[in-house]
Amino acid sequence: MPRGEFGGYPTYWTSFGQGPRAALMIHCSLAETAIWGGMARYLSGALSMTAFDLPGHGRSADWDARGEMSAVCAGIAADFAAQDAPMDVIGHSFGGVVGLRLAMERPDLVRSITMIEPVYFAAALRGGGAACAQHREERRAFEAAMAAGDLDEAARGFIGAWGGGRPWDSFAPETQRRMAAQMPLIAAAGPALYDDSGGMLDPGALEAVTIPALLLEGSEAPAIIPAINEVLAARLPQARRGVIGGAGHMSVATHPDQVSAEVLRFLRDV
């Protein structure tokens, strides 16, 4: 896995596949490039994929709080995409939000955008409903644990909500310690995900993203996810939606064949 400086950060990356189309893969919080391995087996004939570790993840440099998290990550993604633009961008969870920001800020670099359960909470929380109320309770619990300095409790709650149904106690102790230590990264993403610090929800901003967009969600996803995708689909001019049957939030790892089939079906049309 090579290493270089992208967006001002020492960043590790790897490549998958030898297909005719160039794709950039952006993973979720707490993951790393290896999470794309399952999907790469199904996509390798169609795509030449580049995947990189976000700051503070995998073998990339630690997050040093220089700038706002999603803006920095989008800058890293832009440096990768510029090497073989335009690229099909595929992002999961926080990676989906980073991919969307890239498409908004540098449309010349992005041919299409696939967002798998983007955690762009601000999009849904401006509305209401039971899903929003439940998520606000989860967020309050996370913030309370962080304020108390209890990273273990913050991680336990985060994995309970976003771990795709896998129990916290099923993780090895060293993995639990790593995820607990990464909780400040989750907090650092808050301004973009909750406060829309990048202005992505400004009037006309999403409507200006005219590239084809695919929004995927698992049928067992957290309730806030369909609410997010509904808002994004209504505002992105070329958006379509898909559902991964039986999948929770971590569908890229648990249902790589189904997710890949949806991606390939989408890419055949764009």
Care to describe what's here?
With 270 residues, the chain is of the alpha/beta class. Helices cover 43% and strands 18% of the residues. The protein is built from twelve helices and eight strands. It has helices at residues 37-43, 69-81, 94-105, 121-125, 130-147, 151-162, 173-181, 183-188, 190-195, 224-235, 251-254, 256-267, and strands spanning 3-6, 9-16, 21-26, 47-52, 87-92, 110-116, 213-218, 239-244. It has an eight-stranded mixed sheet, sandwiched between helices. Strand 7 (213-218), helix 10 (224-235) and strand 8 form a beta-alpha-beta unit. Helix 2 (69-81) packs across helix 3 and helix 5 runs antiparallel to helix 6. The radius of gyration is 17 Å and the shape is globular. It starts with a strand and ends with a helix.
* Poorly predicted regions: none
Distance N to C terminus = 30 Å
Radius of gyration: 17 Å
Described by strand count, sense and barrel closure, the largest sheet is:
8 strands, mixed
Reading the helices and strands in chain order gives EEEHEHEHEHHHHHHEHEHH
Beta-strand content: 15-25%
Helix content: 40-55%
Mean pLDDT: 96
Global shape: globular
* Structural category: alpha/beta
Helix count, DSSP H or I runs of 4 or more residues: 12
User: How many β-strand stretches?
Assistant: 8
Strand order of the largest sheet: 1-2-4-3-5-6-7-8
